[in-house]
Amino acid sequence: MKQRRNAILWAIGWWIVRRQVRRRAAVAVAGVGATAAAQRGRIRTVLGAVLLVGLLAAGLVAARKLLASGEPGEAPSLADVPPFPDAPAAPVEPDPGPAPA
Asked: Cβ contacts of residue 32 below 8 Å, gap of 6+?
């Protein structure tokens, strides 16, 4: 009789312990999964920001190349822009050269 009672108590105890272990394992796995998802979210955010900056930079380079006039690879300068038609041209003074010593 004593052995049967011990066997039943051990079976109930083992069932309770297994249940608790399974619950704790499920909570731990859920925590790890949430942490991994949060890290993936952070990585995606960083990669998205880098991608956005890269697209903006590529767009600016492409716009500069498309809007450039003259020789390829040469950026437009302010000297290439003609003056307004109603404004008189600024007089150009000759360079006096080096100062006399």
From this structure: none
The CB density around residue 68, as the number of other CB atoms within 10 Å, is 13
pTM of the model: 0.35
- Look-up: residue for tokens 């108590």? 9
Q: Where do we find the tokens 């956005």?
A: 52
**pLDDT tens digits, 35-80:** 777 777 788 888 889 999 999 999 888 888 887 655 555 565 666 6
Sorted by sequence, the CB contacts under 8 Å of residue 74 that are 6+ apart come out as: 68
> Looking up tokens 């006399």, which residue turns up?
100
Amino acid in position 93: E
Question: Buried b / exposed e across 15-42, counting CB within 10 Å, b at 16+?
Answer: eeeeeeeeeeeeeeeeeeeeeeeeeeee
